[in-house]
Design a protein that fits this description.
Layout: H1 13-37, H2 51-76, H3 85-110, H4 116-125
Helix pairs in contact: 2-3
């Protein structure tokens, strides 16, 4: 699946670069593990945060953000169908809350080094996933198609 023969310099510096990168990664992982063992705080810009951990966080945060944004769409369609002004206001507040929370999560992912545009593009291309947990149910009775 991956090609290793591209862009590999044929000098002895390659072995030194790989060895120094492995040493730096080991030191970073050791620092990270020490903080985790001490129940310490991990900040987005910490140099010793392992790349795999950062990617996992970005994936989880973006999936949650996408779910919030996509989840407000079906609820938004119910606003015009609400039977009273009070219920319209309730639905509108719920939709605004989900949209705001989705934007807040996109901002959290941006602190980890991924732009909002990249996250939305991944959603549009199908690379990113989302899951909607809607709490609005259809009213009882016959529904016209």
């Amino acid at each position: 699946m991956y090609t290793q023969s591209l862009d590999i310099p044929s000098s002895q510096n390659t072995e030194r670069d790989v060895a120094s990168a492995a040493t730096a990664d080991a030191a970073a992982q050791t620092s990270f593990d020490a903080v985790m063992q001490a129940d310490g705080k991990i900040e987005p810009q910490d140099w010793w945060m392992p790349e795999a951990y950062r990617k996992t966080l970005v994936r989880q945060i973006s999936q949650h953000a996408h779910s919030e944004i996509i989840g407000m769409q079906p609820e938004g369609s119910w606003i015009s169908r609400a039977p009273s002004l009070k219920r319209k206001a309730i639905l509108l507040a719920k939709v605004q809350g989900e949209g705001g929370y989705g934007l807040y999560l996109y901002s959290a992912a941006e602190t980890l080094g991924v732009s909002r545009d990249q996250l939305v593009a991944a959603l549009h291309t199908g690379k990113a996933k989302y899951r909607v947990f809607s709490t609005i149910r259809r009213p009882p009775g016959p529904m016209s198609a």
